[in-house]
Amino acid sequence: MLVIFLSIIGLMLLIYLVLILSFQDGDRSISETMSIARRISQSIYTDPTEDEIRTISRMLRYIAHLGLFFIVGFVTTFVSMVIFRKYYRILGVMLSGGICYLLAYYTEYYKQFIEGRHFHMTDVGLNWLGSVVGIACMVISYFMNRLLVEMSS
């Protein structure tokens, strides 16, 4: 029971983090990303151009979408597999997929109401792709664990 409670609390904190990062205003989001992109581009290039900095900034944003939602998908699936047992695990995995899709779409949809932010269907796709890979990794790790337990006994 404690594992379920801690898993749900961890998932709620992760979703809160996603919402905080998604709903910050456009100027702050762009300035933070560009600052990181400048530092990275200065370590790669001797004298980076503005175009190179923007390209690295775009790559950072894509990686952030994929990475953050990978973690969301992985953790959501873990929590659903802890809550749902035996044959109901498939229901839990499908439920976590639905939650991830709603979160992926909703966070992007809501950005159009924040000053300086915009709705991009590409970002929804990146969010969803990251979630699906996270879900798949959790399911594969579950089956690998079951296989290793079977082989060891």
H/E element order: HHHHH
- Tell me the overall shape: elongated
Instruction: State the secondary-structure class.
Output: mainly alpha
* Distance between the amino and carboxyl termini: 27 Å
Largest sheet: none
Find the count of extended strands (DSSP E, 2+ residues).
0
Radius of gyration: 19 Å
Written overview of the protein:
This protein has 153 residues and is mostly helical. It has one domain (2-152). The chain has 5 helices and no strands. The longest helix has 34 residues, at 50-83. It starts with a helix and ends with a helix. The model has no long low-confidence stretch (mean pLDDT 90).
Features:
5 helices; elongated; mainly alpha; 153 residues
Give the topology.
Layout: H1 2-22, H2 26-44, H3 50-83, H4 89-110, H5 121-152
What is this entry, summarized?
The protein is 84% helix and 0% strand. It is an all-alpha fold.
